Amino acid sequence: MMQRVILHIDMDYFYAAIEEREKPELRGKAVVVCMLSGRSELSGSVSTCNYIAREFGIRSGMPCSRAKKLNPEAVFLPVRKEFYTSVSNRIMEILRSYADPGENEDPFEQISVDEAFLEVTDRAGGDFNLAFDIGIQIKREIKEKEKLTCSIGVGPNKLIAKMASSAKKPDGITVVSPENLEAFLWPLKVSKLWGIGDVTAKKLQEMGIVTVKDLAEHDVIELISTFGKSRGTWLKQAASGIDDSPLKEREGSEQIGRIATLPEDTLDQGLILPLLERLAGDVIEKLNSRELTFRVVTVTVINSNFRTYTRSRTLNHPVYSKEALLEAAREVLGEFISESRTDLRRVGVRVGGLQKRKGQKSLFDY
Ligand code: DCP
Ligand code: MG
Ligand code: MG
């Protein structure tokens, strides 16, 4: 079996970074994004702030009035959640394009507005140096298209990747291969272990367990007697860097897709359309077997220079026919072909906005 390779990406000071990008006059200033309650000026809590504001001790979750005391010069802005979500959606689309094709298991998992896991085992061929290169490419594409930075962790599983991404922030990338796993993990305080909260950390401290190494070397029976069977074994395994949990698509964001390589690099529709039709057929077959409808059609193309482009169409109604899929996919592909000056190498099509089919039949019955 090939060595598993997982990436975790977390955007840097996400909401505040978007505001900085939109308003160049904020450059060099402390920027605090606030969830204002509207009761009075600055009643509410800090959503996030940029790294300049953090130097003053300002943190997510603290009252905005407190942040104001820590730095009266800071610029306070109200959250614009919908706008940030639209930026997030575009970033997730970029990230998704770097994940393994994923025939059987989910290769992508978004865990918050600015974070996602990517399975890149196949793409990296189990090689952590290649995974590092993929991480650099991701950073470059996000920087180029969205003018934002992110931090990336590369690890043999979700737990390690997640912890690695926060090791160097902002704009960092940290690779933790199985060989340097203990050197990375063991010196950390147990409270830094992803999944351990304040309560558990306190209990562990009372047991004399301070570092992750302490936890890894602790008697599992004693851990089980304190925390119960499943939590106790989890603690022991996590401290050893063991985590087999699979990536899981968010409810409602699941997609079904197929991607394949063209017989030769080309921009000739006559050569590309037959492949597109085959892919669409496979997608529809999968959709039928699970009795789903789709509303979003996404086409991905990878050109001779290995650059990936992705574009989607959202339909007015949920549908499930191959014709509907092909019509939308052909339209998007046509745009790519007319805009591209480089031959295409690979083509992919996928559907999203999936729903269980229900009631379609009855429409015609009555
Ligand atoms: N967020 C929020 N309230 C919190 C924490 C976060 O509204 N208590 C929002 C604002 C953040 C976004 O979620 O921009 C992402 O959260 P992160 O924890 O990833 O924090 P940032 O991206 O802001 O900073 P960092 O560079 O530390 O990742
Ligand atoms: Mg972040
Ligand atoms: Mg985050």
Helices and strands in order:
Blueprint: E1 6-11, H1 14-22, E2 31-36, E3 44-49, H2 51-54, H3 64-70, E4 75-78, H4 81-96, E5 108-112, E6 115-119, H5 121-124, H6 128-146, E7 150-155, H7 158-165, E8 173-175, H8 181-185, H9 198-206, H10 212-216, H11 220-227, H12 229-239, E9 256-266, H13 269-289, E10 292-303, E11 308-319, H14 322-339, E12 344-352, E13 355-356, H15 360-365
Helix pairs in contact: 4-6, 11-12, 13-14
Q: Would you write up a description of this structure?
A:
With 366 residues, the protein is an alpha+beta fold. The protein is 41% helix and 24% strand. It has 15 helices and 13 strands. The protein has helices at residues 14-22, 51-54, 64-70, 81-96, 121-124, 128-146, 158-165, 181-185, 198-206, 212-216, 220-227, 229-239, 269-289, 322-339, 360-365; strands at 6-11, 31-36, 44-49, 75-78, 108-112, 115-119, 150-155, 173-175, 256-266, 292-303, 308-319, 344-352, 355-356. Strands 5-6-1-7-8 form a 5-stranded mixed β-sheet. The chain starts with 5 loop residues before the first strand and ends with a helix. 33% of the residues are buried. Bound molecules: 2'-deoxycytidine-5'-triphosphate (DCP) and magnesium ion (2 copies).
